[in-house]
Each structure stands twice: as C-alpha cells, then as structure tokens.
Write a structure and sequence with these properties.
heterodimer, A: mainly beta, four-stranded antiparallel β-sheet, B: about 900 residues, about 0% strand
Chain lengths: ~400, ~900
C-alpha cells in the first residue's frame, strides 16, 4: 500500500506531504502552526490540526482547522472554547478528542460537529492524548506530570460516574515534570504504555495491573517515543538529537554506556528530535527534528535512508498514512470547482440536548457507522463520476 | 504364676486404679487366685471325674513325698531353655569406650547417648542431658548441622515434660542453639515437627505446661513467621481457649502478660496496609526483567479463609472481656503498676492488629460479609481514669492506654463508624493535639513523639466525617501542633504528611478543604509558609525530612490551586525559598542547605521551579550563584538550566531574565578554580572545563530555539561584547563567542561599531589561545582536538564578515609594533620584548592560515597581510640591537614563516 508522510511545524510553515516510496513532495497545506501531537488524519478523509495561539485570533479561544486532501487552504475552521493542544481521533474517523490548556478533555462527533462530552481531566494543560488499540481507553498526559487512563464506558455512564470516586481508571503520578509523550502498545486493556517526561525519564506502565514496570533514566529529555512493532524495544528521541533504543522485552546489559536498559542509539548530528513514527513496513522509522528536517531511518542497519526538508522551523508532528485517493500531485492541477465535502465545524459549547442520549451505546454507534458508510460511498461515487467525466472529455 | 497374674491385671491398672503398690498386688493376687480357682472349677469337673474313674482311688490329689535338699524333677513336657555358648562377647562398654576423635560433651558423652538420656526417667539425668547437648552443639556446631532432624525429633518429646526446670532448659536450648542453627534450611519441616507437640502441650493437664507451650509457640513464630499463617486457626484456637477457659487470676498477672505478648507478636503478622506498601516498593526495587512475563497470582498468605474471621471475632470478644476485667481490677487497686498496664496495652495492641487486618481484608479482597467487631464494651470504658491523685508515671500510663483505645476507635471508624462515641474521642484528640508543648514534662514529650504520628495519620479520615464545628476545632488543633512541634521530630514529618493528604487533590483521602472559608484559608496559608522555613531550619541535618517537604512543595505546584489566594501564596513561597539556595549578606555568599542535600532531593527541588507561575529575578540570581558553586554536581547544574528553559517556554520567566541568567552562568563559571591553567589533557585534569562546554552547548541549543533570531541577537549583541571585554578567562570568552556565533547569521548582523570592538577583543583572545596552546605541541592528537575548539567561533565570525578579519589583522600589527598598545590578561608570561610579541603574532597568523576555508578569505586581505609583514620586519630590524642572539634567531624564524605563509596564500 502506498503511504505518505505528513508533517507540520510549530511555526507557520504549513503541512508538508511526501510520498514515502519516492520522497517527492506532494502538496503543502497552508497556514498551520500546530502544537506537539496536534495533527491527525481523520479516518483518512481529511486532515485536522489544532493551532497554537496567535495574537490575532479572538482572545481566549483556540482553533482547530480542517484541510481536505485536495486543497491547500484550510476548509473548515472551528473555534473551541479554549486552546486545544493535543488532538486524537479514532481509526474510523467518527470522533475527535482534544485536550485543552486548562486540563479539560473534549470529545466531538465528527459527522455533526457536536460536543459530546467534556470533563476536567488534569490540573494543568493536557500535553498528549492517545487511544488504546481497541479504542476503549483514552490515555492522557499533562503538564502536571500525571498520566491518566480513561474508559469511554465510564465517561458516558452517568450512573457509574455518580457512584465512582474518580472518573479515571488509573492515575500514574510518578513523573515529577511535564509529560511530553505517551505511546500505547498492543492488547487493548492489557497493553503496556510508555510515557516520557521532562524529568528525563521514560516509564513503562502496565494497564492491566495499573502499576509501574520499568523506569529508565535517559541522558536528556525525551520528546518522542515510537514502539517497535514487536514491542521488543522502543525508540526515544531526545533533545540532544539522538534517538535512543531502550529495551522493553529485549535483553540489555546493565553496564551500557548510555544507562540502564538503553541498548544503543541512532545518531546524526541533528538538533533535538521532536517526533517519531513507524512506517507500515515495520522497519523504517521517521523522525522529525528541531532543525526542520525529516529523516527516515532503517532500524536494522541504523542508517538514514532519506532526508526530507520541511521548513526552517522545527518539525513537531509526523504522520504516516495511507495515500488518499484524491490527493493532488502538485499545486498546478488544483481543481477549482470542487466543493467542500468536509463535515461542519466543531461546536464550542455542547448543544441544549442532553448528552446522555448521544452516548456510545451500541445501537447509536452502529447508526453512526451507517451514516459514515453512506457518506463514503457517496464520496467514492462522486470520484468515479468525476473520473468518467474526465475520461469522456479526454 | 504370679507373673502371669500380673499380666492379666495390667489393663485394670491402666484404667486408673491407684494406691499402694504392695497392697494392690496383694489384692490382685487374691482376686486372681479366686478367678483361677473358679476357672478350674468350671473347666475341670469332667476331667477329674474321668481321672477318678481311671485311677480308681478316692484320692483327689496325689501326695508326693519330698525330701529336703532335693530338687523337683522337671516336668515331662518341659522345654530345655539352657543356652550353651563357648564365649560371651560384649560389643562395647560405654564407659570404657574409646571416644577419641568423636564430638563429646563436657562429661564425655556423645550426642547419641545424650539423646537417649534425654528421655531418662530421672529428671536430673534428663536435665543434664539437655545441658550436655547444649555444650556439645556450642562446641561442635557441625554436629547440629548433620543431625538436625534426629535432634529435633527427640527433643520435641520434652516440650510437655512434667518438670518445670527441664522445660525451661529445653526452651533455652531451642532459643539459643537449635533454632538459630536451622536458620538457613527448609525451616518448614522443623516447624511442622515441633508444632504438633506444641499444640498437644497446649491441651496438657498441667497449667504450667500449657503456659510454657505458648512461650514455645512465640519462639517458633519469631524464628519463622510463616508459622502463624500456616497454623493460624489452631494457634488462635489455643489462645482463645487459654484466655477464655482458664480464668487466669489477676494475681498471676505475669503469666497473663507472657501469653498476651505472644499473642501480640502473632497478630502483628496479620497483613495490614502498612506491611503491604513496603513489599510493593520491594518489588519495584527488584526490577522486572521481562515485562510481558506471566506473574503468578497465587495468594501469598493462607490466613485469608473465612474461618479466620470468625476465630478473630471470637478472640476479640475474649480480649475485650479480659480488658474490662483488668479495668475493674485496676480500679480496685490503689495504683496502676507497670505490669498491669503492659498487660492492658498488649490486649489493645492485639485488638488493633485485628481491626487493621479486617480493614485490609475488606480493601484487598473486597470481602463485604465480615463479621462486625464487638468493641462497644471497650469504648464505653473510655477514657480510663483513676479517681485518686496520680503520680506522673501513672498519668503517662493512662495516657498511653487512652491513646491506644482512640487509635483503635479511629481505625474501626474506617470499617463502620459507631457515632455514639465519636464526640468523646474527638474531645480527647483535640485536647491532646492542642496541649502546649512547652508545658509538658519530658517523659510526656517522649510519649507524644511516639504516639503523635499515628494519631495525626487518622486526622484526614476524621475530617471527612465530622461536622463543620468539629472540623474547625480539629484544624485549629492540628495547626497548633504543626507550628509547635520541633523541626527534627517525627511529629513534624507526620504533620507534613497530613498536610499532603489534605492539600494534594489526587490523593485518595484528600478532602476538598473549603478554602473559601476564611478560617480554613488562614490555616492552609500557615502550613504553606511553614514549609520553606522548615527546609531552611533543617539544613542538611535530616535529608529524609527535607525530602518529604520538598516532595510536598512539588506536589502542590503540580496540582495547582483553584483558589487564587493560594496560587498567589504558592508563588510567594519562592521569596522564602531564596535563603534555601543562597544566604546573601553583603558581598559574601553563603550557600544554603540546597547544595548539601542528596542528589535526588536536589533534583526534586529543581522540578519545583517549573511550577511557579513566574520566577523572580532575585531567585534566578540565587540559582545562578548556586550553579556557579563548585560543590554542585554537573548533572544538577544541567537540570537547573533545562528546567528553567522549560519554565521559560511555559512563559514563567521573562526573556531578558532568562538571557541574563545564561550569560551570567557562562561568564562567571570558574573552570580552573584558582589552579594554574594547565595546557593539555584538559578533560581529565579539569572536569569543570568539560562541564562548561556541555553547558555552553545546551545553552546554545536553547537560544536557537527561543524563536525570533533577530530579536534574540539584538538582545545579546551588546551584553555579550561587554562581558567579553571584562578580562575573563579564555574558556568563558570562548563560551560567550560561541553563543554570539549561534545567534548571529551569515552574513553577520553585527553593527560596525560592534565589529570594531570585537576585532580588538578577538585579537586578545587569539593571542591568549596561542599562549595556552603553544605551536610546538601540535603533534599531540589531543592538541588538535582542542585547538579547534577555541578558535572555531573566531573562524566562523571571520567567515561571516571579512571586515572583521581585516580589522583583526590590523590589530595584530598594532600589537606587534606598539609595546603599550594592548595590555594582556597574562602579563606575567609576557615581558615587553618585541621578539615575543612578534613570535606570538606570527603564531596567531599561522593558526588562522591553517584553516582551509579561511585561506580563501585571507587571500582577499592582501593589503592587510603585507602591512603586517612589513611592520613586523621593520620592527625586527629596528629592535635587533636590543635582542640576544637566541631571541634574534627565533624572531627571524618567525618572520620567515610568516613570509612563506603569506606567499602561499597570495602568491
């Protein structure tokens, strides 16, 4: 399957897209200055990114922008009630979850833009959000050093909420400083999670047992983590420009030159590593660095395969996604007549209707999927019609 | 015949016929004879009639005539029992045996003999045997190792010995010799061998044996704690029986006490939350090797069956009754002696262990159907008081008992709160907390120290349940203790822990303090202000306490305050904390306790800096002077820089403050610490040089991330140039130049004015470098590595501005020709001779010209180079007369080198 790399920066350098196989730049989407973990591909249908506050925007409110694949300008602009930092969405692209700067977490339904739920998750700003692979658990990290695990069942269960002492399933408070990133392994509620913090440590937790399994001290602050698909090791990108390889289930010698449990490093005189992502093949690792370069590494030989240049500013988000059907090869072939097919903007406040009826109950969720299916088919049909028309004209 | 009679009668004897032996035997014989006679009469009539008929005579018994001195002829059917043997061989005779080389006791007996003797019927011999065994084992420990099982199997029979002295001796033998000797093996086997006998001794007829058996049990439990969980039910049964059925009289209080103390040590082995916590931390310390490995989840202790709970409940009833008996007895006595109060304390401790275990079981195993503990009787007698006037000692004893009861009450209130008694206990705890510390006696102070932490630990739980009025009273009392207790005491630590429970919102027990209430707010403010003071007061005396305080400060910062007053107060704590880092009086800097704390606490304290919503320049100043201290570890130094940068990114530090912190750090960091500047192998000899380089690298990367480069450059340009001109050591100047290069761009943004200024500074700097790294040593590989480090920023600057290079060449010319032109930072090495200046200028030029990239630029500075060469040659020819031959030679060589170098660059 064809994959593309998408990257964004904290300065207004747009979102770059490259073909993974050839390294050709495809299209640059404009006006995007995203915070770390603030770029998502919503179900492969379009891109969404939260935006760092700029002084021109109306005071207090943040913004989340949508780009459709074929248009460089943002298509839909939403203005949530506060600045949204991390964004995450489920694989199907039905829900978008965002973490606010006051510690609130918001859940929106994409198709309608409705704000389904919001709750006070952290005492300080949320910095990263991640979903477990079965999408039943949400894991959030925050500036207060907490990593919390939330169950969607609990969040939409009004009775359970009233009975429970706390909403979260687990609250890991061992980090003393801001959590920079969290990744989750395979296995739903039995998986491992790895979190990194500005206290220079990475900690490995067990979701099922709710306790810490391993604490690894690194020579510098770790800003990005990528799990090896086999969960033998994880790759930790540090602020000193090195990508450390730390053992999960691999053997490690206690007297490693980097520290306990750290097996080795990938290293290329770059500035700090801001983000890491694994490609679909399971061996190539993509790293985005402070110096604006995106490096693709072969994890078997520890060599760089390719370097892509994003911008002068730091690259702080990288996604590797399947190539969408409608992405344009270059700006030259921009179709002007195409109309927006994107869903409405996200709500600022939840609508009058009680949220309870919109919970993730089986029947309802099914109906949402139904909606999506029709939406997708319509989408595909439109494309096919277009193709046929083009063929006809040619 | 008599013998057979004896045998026949023995069952009767076993049945318990007692009396005089002789008499007994006599009676028996009579009975036996008559029985026998009966028998005969019953069996024989027929036979006799036959005999009669056959023999024909009317004689019943035939009469033999016997002659004196003759033996009866043997009966016809007699068996010959004669044994005939040629020789009798005795294998060995113990007394005479040769025991050389064998392990023997003082009396010359081997272990085997001693063990045999230990079951001798004579108590004295048994005792001697036991003592002998002890001697033997003390002398030959390996003897015990090889015969452990046999020894234990034999000796256990003596546990229920009739003789008191023997039981005591055996106890000592087990305690001092046998059990310590069996420590490292599979102890369960020995214990199972012994326990059966101990249990049977518990049901012995004699009270003394039963009492002693509990002592044995205590010993076993002490040596091998799992004994209790393995045999919990039987053990509890035993205690229950002895406490319930055997009505130990108050006169025998000593015996009661020994039993109770055993019970306390057994029950303290019941799992409770405290013990669980420590075991968890052990698991983390052990570090898992495999993360996905399967973890066995078998229950760790077998005492969790439901029978245990019933047993314990029964035991608690007995204990409470026992306690009430003791109380009534005490009231009838004139005074409370120590033994009685110890007894009562033991009862209370046992009850407490049970209550804690129940709580633990409910939390851990989610057991809902626990029997409720009937403790009302205990609470009704609270508080225990005596009507009479009390001596100080007795007063303390009553106090301890009352404290213990209230602890039990508060523990129980977590299970199920009996509200009837709550008031009574609240009053007690309030009076206890708010007692003035200055007014209590010394012994009471010790008491408070011991019991206050546990009482304080109950406080967060209590505050949850009590009503508003009581809450205010308790908080008031708690604040009094917090302020009044001495900083190094355990009470203070407990107070800080309670404050953590109350203030940190994510804690399980946290209650939402109603901080809108003025009074509560006042209390909270007092606690917070107390913390930095405490840190300063503690110094480095008690690092553990300091760590607790720092941890609380960090947690408060992390979880923030919704109340604006508290948030403001938290920010204000940084002013109080300044003294913790540095005490500044006038020009002197005295470092505060921070530098002397262990590394972990320091790191924790550093993370605290991130959470202040703004950082005052004063605090930054203190931090900077801490960073410059030689005692600070490089790791912590780097952490401080890192955390401050994070704080800057979060908007807690002003940009100007942040930059000046960096500049101060880099410019004042002392590399040499007063030593003479050594030339080479700098890394090994001067570790601080490596630290400075590391810090410079980190600061450069931070500055490059600060955003708008032009803005940062504008801020830095002047301050860096001014600082460089302050005659700093070369290392610091190099660091500053690197910073300047980092923020500058190509082509340079330096203003003309700055370039002029910089040219002079660079000229001095380059000459200093040449002094540090003389050209003669360029063969050394270390030299090549380090020689690049210092001039590199200059090269980069030259690259960006050719004008700067020209100016520097001019400055070199001026330096070479005019003796008074540039006073240097190393005047001692530099006599005012022209020849030295000439050689140095040439060295600088050669160094620059070696850089490949600079050669291209140099080639476009032809005029300056010629000027330099001309003035150097002219000054040489002018001053030649004043030089010695050697100096002249060196200067000439230098000039020749210069000429060739210049001609190579621009032929």
């Amino acid at each position: 399957m064809d994959s593309i790399i998408i990257a964004s920066s904290s300065i207004d350098a747009g979102i770059g897209a490259w073909d993974l196989a050839t390294g050709n730049e495809l299209l640059r989407y404009k006006s995007c200055a995203s915070p770390p973990h603030g770029l998502v591909s919503v179900g492969g249908r379009f891109l969404a990114s939260s935006q760092l506050r700029d002084n021109h925007s109306s005071s207090g409110s943040g913004s989340v922008l949508y780009w459709s694949w074929h248009k460089p300008q943002p298509d839909v602009k939403s203005f949530p009630v506060e600045m949204i930092m991390p964004l995450v969405c489920d694989i199907g692209g039905n829900y978008i979850i965002g973490g606010g700067s006051s510690g609130y977490i918001y859940v929106w339904e994409v198709a309608t833009g409705r704000l389904l739920n919001r709750w006070h998750a952290h005492y300080r700003a949320a910095t990263c959000l991640v979903l477990s692979d079965d999408e039943s658990l949400l894991i959030s990290g925050a500036e207060d050093g907490c990593v919390r695990v939330w169950s969607f069942f609990m969040l939409f269960d009004e009775i359970g909420k009233a009975e429970a002492k706390h909403l979260y399933e687990h609250s890991f408070t061992e980090h003393t400083l801001k959590v920079t990133t969290v990744v989750v392994g395979y296995g739903g509620c039995n998986s491992l999670i790895v979190s990194a913090s500005e206290d220079r440590t990475c900690k490995v937790w067990s979701l099922s047992r709710g306790k810490i399994l391993r604490d690894i001290l690194f020579p510098c602050i770790i800003d990005a983590i990528a799990l090896d698909p086999g969960e033998h090791v994880f790759y930790a990108g540090g602020r000193n420009g090195k990508i450390y390889i730390a053992a999960l289930n691999a053997a490690s010698s206690p007297d490693s030159p980097y520290g306990k449990h750290i097996i080795g490093s990938l290293h290329d005189h770059s500035k700090g590593i801001n983000c890491l992502a694994f490609c679909g093949d399971g061996t190539s690792l993509v790293s985005g660095s402070e110096d604006g370069l995106i490096r693709i590494w072969d994890t078997r030989s520890h060599n760089i395969i390719r370097i892509l240049r994003h911008a002068k500013g730091p690259v702080n988000n990288i996604l590797v996604v399947a190539r969408p059907e409608t992405i344009l090869k270059s700006t030259a072939s921009l179709g002007r007549k195409q109309q927006s097919l994107l869903p409405p903007p996200l709500e600022k406040y939840s609508s009058e209707e009680p949220i309870g009826t919109k919970a993730f109950i089986g029947g309802h969720t099914a109906s949402v999927e139904q909606l999506d299916v029709t939406y997708l088919t319509e989408y595909v049909m439109n494309n096919q019609i277009k193709d046929i028309q083009q063929h006809g004209s040619a | 015949e008599e013998k057979s009679l004896h045998c026949e009668m023995s069952p009767a004897r076993v049945a318990g016929v007692r009396g005089n032996r002789r008499q007994e035997y006599g009676e028996r014989r009579v009975i036996g004879c008559s029985l026998l006679w009966e028998n005969r009469r019953m069996v024989r009539p027929k036979a006799s009639s036959k005999k009669k008929s056959t023999r024909g005579g009317g004689v019943d018994f035939k009469k033999f005539k016997r002659k004196l001195g003759r033996k009866l002829p043997p009966p016809k059917n007699a068996t010959n029992t004669e044994i005939k043997s040629k020789a009798i061989i005795l294998p060995e005779q113990s007394v005479a045996a040769d025991k050389a080389g064998l392990a023997v006791s003082k009396k010359g007996l081997t272990l085997k003999e001693l063990l045999q003797q230990s079951s001798h019927y004579n108590p004295k011999v048994r005792k001697d045997a036991l003592l002998g065994i002890r001697d033997l084992f003390l002398k030959f420990p390996q003897e015990l190792q090889s015969n452990k099982l046999a020894v234990v199997e034999k000796l256990r029979e003596r546990i229920s010995d009739q003789d008191k002295l023997i039981r005591e001796t055996l106890y000592q033998l087990f305690k001092l010799v046998v059990l310590p000797g069996c420590k490292e093996d599979n102890q369960g086997v020995f214990i199972s061998l012994l326990v059966a006998y101990v249990f049977s001794a518990m049901t012995h007829l004699s009270l003394d044996v039963r009492l002693m058996s509990f002592k044995y049990l205590e010993l076993l439990v002490q040596h091998y704690p799992p004994t209790f969980s393995l045999y919990a039910e039987k053990i509890l049964q035993g205690y229950d029986d002895i406490l319930r059925k055997n009505q130990l009289h108050m006169e025998e209080i000593g015996k009661l006490k020994s039993i109770l103390s055993g019970l306390v040590s057994c029950l303290s082995l019941l799992p409770s939350n405290q013990s669980e916590d420590s075991s968890i931390s052990k698991v983390i310390a052990a570090e898992l090797q495999l993360l996905h490995a399967f973890e066995a989840d078998a229950p760790k202790h077998s005492a969790g069956s439901s029978h245990i709970f019933e047993r314990l409940e029964g035991l608690v009833v007995v204990l409470v009754n026992c306690f009430n008996d003791l109380v009534t007895w005490v009231h009838s006595q004139p005074a409370l002696d120590s033994q009685t109060s110890d007894c009562m304390l033991c009862v209370l401790q046992s009850v407490e262990s049970v209550v804690r275990y129940f709580f633990y079981a409910r939390e851990k195993h989610a057991l809902q159907q626990l029997p409720s503990l009937p403790l009302e009787k205990l609470f009704t007698v609270f508080p225990i008081k005596s009507k009479a006037q009390l001596s100080e000692k007795e007063d303390d004893r009553y106090l301890i008992l009352n404290i213990k009861i209230s602890e039990i009450f508060f523990d129980l209130s977590r299970l199920s709160c009996p509200p009837v008694f709550l008031e009574k206990f609240l009053e007690f705890i309030e009076s206890l907390l708010s007692r003035e510390f200055s007014s209590v006696t010394r012994s009471q102070k010790v008491l408070y120290e011991k019991y206050m932490p546990t009482l304080l630990a109950c406080l967060p739980e209590l505050l949850k349940v009590v009503d508003y009025g009581w809450k205010a009273r308790l908080l008031q009392a708690y604040t009094t203790v917090f302020r009044g207790s001495s900083p190094q005491s355990a009470t203070k630590v407990a107070c800080v822990t309670v404050a953590e429970e109350l203030l940190v919102p994510h804690k399980q027990n946290s209650l939402n303090l109603d901080v809108d209430d003025q009074e509560t707010l006042g209390h909270v403010l007092t606690w917070m202000r107390e913390l930095p003071m405490l840190l300063i007061y503690l110094g480095d005396v008690q690092p553990s306490t300091s760590e607790v305080v720092i941890r609380l400060l960090v947690q408060l910062g992390r979880f923030g305050f919704s109340n604006p007053y508290l948030a403001e107060e938290y920010d204000n704590l940084q002013f109080l904390l300044q003294e913790f880092f540095v005490k500044q009086n006038n020009a002197d800097t005295n470092y505060g306790p921070f530098l002397r704390l262990p590394k972990d606490s320091q790191e924790l304290c550093v993370s605290c800096l991130y959470f202040f919503s703004f950082l005052d320049p004063c605090l930054l100043e203190c931090l900077a002077s801490c960073c410059l201290s030689q005692d600070l570890e490089p790791y912590i130094l780097l952490r401080i820089v890192e955390v401050l940068h994070s704080a800057y990114k979060a908007g807690h530090v002003l940009m100007a403050d942040h930059i000046s912190f960096f500049i101060t750090l880099v410019s004042k960091f002392e590399v040499t610490c007063g030593q003479a500047l050594s030339v080479l192998d700098s890394e090994a000899k001067i570790p601080r040089r490596a630290t400075l380089r590391q810090v410079t690298g980190v600061i450069c990367s931070f500055l490059s991330q600060m955003g708008d480069h032009t803005l940062v450059f504008d801020m830095l340009e002047k301050i860096v140039l001014d600082t460089i001109s302050l005659k700093l050591p070369a290392d610091n100047r190099c660091a500053l130049l690197r910073i300047l290069v980092m923020v500058d761009s190509s082509p340079t943004r330096l203003s003309d004015q700055s370039i002029t200024k910089l040219s002079k500074l660079l000229c001095e700097y380059l000459i200093d470098i040449v002094l540090i790294y003389p050209v003669e040593e360029c063969g050394n590989s270390n030299y090549i590595l380090h020689s690049r480090y210092y001039p590199l920023p200059c090269y980069l600057l030259f690259h960006r501005s050719i004008k700067l290079l020209m100016l520097v060449l001019n400055m070199l010319e001026v330096f070479a020709t005019q003796l008074d032109a540039t006073p240097l930072s190393h005047p001692a090495q530099l006599d005012s001779h022209h020849w030295r200046r000439i050689t140095m200028v040439v060295a600088v030029f050669l160094m620059i010209s070696k850089d490949d990239k600079l050669r291209d630029i140099l080639s476009s500075c032809r005029n300056e180079m010629y000027h330099l060469m001309q003035s150097v040659s002219s000054i040489l020819s002018k001053e030649e007369s004043s030089m010695s031959i050697e100096q002249k030679h060196k200067a000439n060589c230098a000039v020749e080198q210069l000429k060739t170098a210049i001609s190579e660059i621009s032929p």
